[in-house]
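During the reporting period, we have paired protein sequences with backbone structure tokens. One record among many follows, to show the layout:
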Amino acid sequence: MSARERNPFRPGNGIPPPLLAGREAALESFSRLLDENARGVPANLILYGLRGTGKTVLLQMFKQICEESKWAYVEREFNERYRDEESFAEAFLQDLTNVASSISLRKRATEFGKKIVDTVKPEEMEVAGISYKPFYKSKRTLLEDHLRNHLINNWKIFERASDQTKGLVFFYDEFHSVRDLTPNFPLASLLGALAESQRRNCKYILVASGLPNVKIYMKEAKTYVERMFRFQELGNLNEKDSRHAIEEPLSKARIYFEGDVTESLINDARGYPYFLQFYGYSMIEKLNRDKITPSDFQRVRKSILDDLDKSFFDDRFESASDFEQKVLLAMARAGEDNLKTSEIAKRLPHQDYQTILSSLGGLLIRT
């Protein structure tokens, strides 16, 4: 079997790497969160970080922990369409009633419950104890009241199935896409409904994952978010974890990076999880050798960087405004990690500080 066929690295969107290095604390923290909720101490989680740091992969690991701990879960990836209250309500209630029906002890309830969300009807339906009513904003019903009632009314389904599940976890990815903007308030409505249901001992947990601005939008929606949620940031890996993420998969695949190849790779990637996978994968694909030397690495390094430009950087740069491109170039020329806004401002004389800050925010959302 060739080196390419044994290539252990997996760059991609949400694709689990061969080794999830440096995330042990996050996994342990989530296990504790489930245990606390099971004991009647409600808590939720906001998981945030830049793209490519492994948020979606970590959510997959969280799901495995749920299965091992007898927690039901539902997952959804969000986008801007869910800023509309009706679209948000439809998605959330589908998630809730689908899971409620799937855990019902009666086969008829499971089958009929699924039909509820497939054929959304305008009247309230009570089928085998499952409560569902579409949300119509035109009727001027408060979305928060609507969601709260469904969460509380459907909790009895989970209580009856206590031998199957301890509760329900909502894994909501790309949740930074959702924001309260008048006249739509999906976040405030969800948070208010969730808080009230948890106060009534309904064991629901929200795990909201997204870019760093997700925590800002959540705090804008409800001032008490910091009392409802734990905050878990995912950043770049340190040198030790970066090395572990590279060397252990290579060893299992019987492929060897000789000399300072690993150090060179880590230095280029700066601990960014996606780049670690991309570099490792690309080197093996391009060279197809069981042993890769420092000279091999230098020979293909420019090609790897060209590939990154085409697949990762070019479209992001071209989609930026003229001023945002100036900000990006200033950051690149600085060549520093954890660059402060004030340092960028020094490289952009006569530019308003607030404008630079706003541009950084826009770049963060899109990249």
